[in-house]
Amino acid sequence: MADEPITITGWPLVEIHFNGPASDAQVQAWLDTMDQLLARQSPFGLLTATGPDSDFAEAGRRAMGIWFRQNRQPLQQFCVGVARVAPNQQAIQRLAGPKMQAAMPCPIFASVERAEALAWLQAKLPGAQ
Question: Is the pLDDT of residue 70 over 60?
């Protein structure tokens, strides 16, 4: 499973790892899984990590943008926050800066330390382990 370009595990603390280049079909499968998370109509948090070789084709990026625009309201209602593990200090601003905060309907946080990102998310989602 770790060699899959996108892996998703856990609930209500959902970990998403972007491990490598993803095809349009793989991006769509990830978005379908996100639909399933929202369909639970229960609070959840996302912990994301991106590998150095992860990438989406233009069509995948477009599909992702459309999905996030179409699901803004349910994300705001059910996603308590997105904690992003940054590959380096310089990426933090891009991953959780003002532009990303404005684009996301839920709180967003980035850190180079997985433990710090996890602690932030757990504080948003009491009872998550």
Answer: yes
CA dist., res. 92 & res. 84, Å (int): 9
Residue 44 placed within a domain: yes
Residue 71 is part of which domain span?
6-124
Residue 1 lies in a domain: no
Q: What is the pLDDT of residues 71-98, one digit of tens each?
A: 999 999 999 999 999 988 998 998 999 9
Q: State the pLDDT at residue 127.
A: 66
Cβ–Cβ < 8 Å for 8, 14:
yes
CA-CA distance, 103 to 107, in Å (whole number)? 10
Instruction: Assign residue 73 the CATH number of its domain.
Output: 3.30.750
Q: Name the pTM for this structure.
A: 0.91
Q: Give yes or no for a contact between 8 and 15, defined as CB atoms under 8 angstroms apart.
A: yes
What's the domain count of the chain? 1
**How far is it, in rounded angstroms, from Cα 7 to Cα 56?**
14
